[in-house]
């Protein structure tokens, strides 16, 4: 009787977990369908190529312009700058926690990093306005520091907890036998870390980086507050920029319902969705390549 009960419970939970997995896929599919449906209404008025390659975003002008290339480049620039800061700092911190830190330091550093993730994005944005922005303006002799560099620094801070936590888990999960074998042939701790541990943990580190990229691309409030929100073609990190997420957040609350401008924001969201999906697929590709390499 107990055996049959256990089998019934196993079967019941199997279907429950299967249903939750399918529900997640259904939600994702529903979101994508909603975005595509509303975007289609926009593309009845504006050609997709003109939308993607257009050099001007000014939907409220007498002659509305719906070119989102400045928004794409601004988002890419801020995200790229954030990853330039966050990836080496995050992986280095993760390696220190996993390999070099004493138990006492580790017990202090890990909770501190995790607490950093709990800081609201609006607080990070406020600190960017009152602390980082004046510093950038002073160092670069600018009228203000609300630019792409400011947004990149703040996004790097926000992405660090994710990158550090996931990368540290990946490094910590490398079997001790790998390190012992490296030490056995005379390698130093540094050589073991660089040539053995980090390559072995590469799939997890890449996953950490891609999660950080996703956090940076999708962040709204921080870049809305800290980047200046100028929908112009960026030429460098000291230019004020306007990201796709900030554009949606600023304009969605004021745009007339079911107008071309309204549907244009859905088109931006669709492009943003595709960019995030492409980044995740690229990360998954490299993760699988590293797994196959280690399997061989």
Automatic annotation (TrEMBL):
Domain ABC transmembrane type-1: 72-283
Listed transmembrane segments: 21-40, 71-97, 118-140, 152-171, 192-217, 262-282
Topology relative to the membrane: Multi-pass membrane protein
A Pfam family of this chain: BPD_transp_1
InterPro entries linked: MetI-like, MetI-like_sf, Phosphate_PstC, Phosphate_Transport_Permease
UniProt KW Nuclease keyword: no
Xref: Gene3D superfamilies: MetI-like
Superkingdom classification of source: Bacteria
Entry keyword set: Cell membrane, Membrane, Phosphate transport, Transmembrane, Transmembrane helix, Transport
Localisation: Cell membrane
Its biological purpose: Part of the binding-protein-dependent transport system for phosphate; probably responsible for the translocation of the substrate across the membrane.
Family: Belongs to the binding-protein-dependent transport system permease family. CysTW subfamily.
Name of this chain's protein: Phosphate transport system permease protein
Upper taxonomic lineage: Bacteria, Pseudomonadati, Bacteroidota, Sphingobacteriia, Sphingobacteriales
């Amino acid at each position: 009787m107990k055996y049959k009960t256990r089998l019934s419970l196993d079967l019941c939970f199997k279907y429950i977990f299967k249903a939750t997995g399918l529900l997640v896929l259904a939600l994702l599919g529903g979101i994508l369908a909603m975005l595509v449906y509303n975007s289609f209404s926009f593309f009845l008025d504006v050609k997709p190529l003109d939308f993607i390659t257009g050099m001007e975003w000014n939907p409220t002008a007498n002659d509305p312009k719906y070119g989102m290339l400045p928004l794409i480049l601004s988002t890419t620039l801020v995200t790229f700058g954030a990853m330039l800061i966050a990836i080496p700092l995050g992986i280095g911190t993760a390696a220190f926690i996993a390999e070099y830190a004493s138990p006492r330091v580790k017990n202090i550093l890990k909770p501190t990093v995790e607490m950093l993730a709990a800081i609201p994005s609006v607080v990070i944005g406020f600190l960017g306005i009152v602390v980082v922005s004046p510093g950038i303006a002073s160092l670069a002799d600018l009228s203000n520091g609300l630019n792409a560099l400011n947004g990149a620094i703040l996004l790097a801070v926000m992405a660090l907890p994710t990158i550090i936590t996931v990368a540290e888990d990946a490094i910590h999960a490398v079997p001790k036998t790998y390190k012992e074998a490296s030490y056995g042939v005379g390698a130093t701790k540094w050589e073991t870390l660089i040539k053995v541990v980090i390559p072995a943990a590469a799939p997890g580190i890449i996953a950490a980086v891609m999660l950080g990229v996703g956090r940076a691309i999708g962040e709204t409030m921080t870049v809305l507050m800290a980047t200046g929100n100028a929908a112009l073609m960026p030429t460098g990190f000291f230019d004020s920029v306007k990201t796709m997420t900030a554009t949606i957040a600023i304009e969605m609350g004021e745009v007339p319902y079911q107008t071309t401008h309204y549907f244009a924001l859905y088109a931006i969201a669709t492009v943003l969705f595709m960019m995030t999906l492409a980044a995740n697929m690229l990360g998954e590709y490299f993760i699988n390549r590293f797994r196959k390499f280690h399997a061989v």
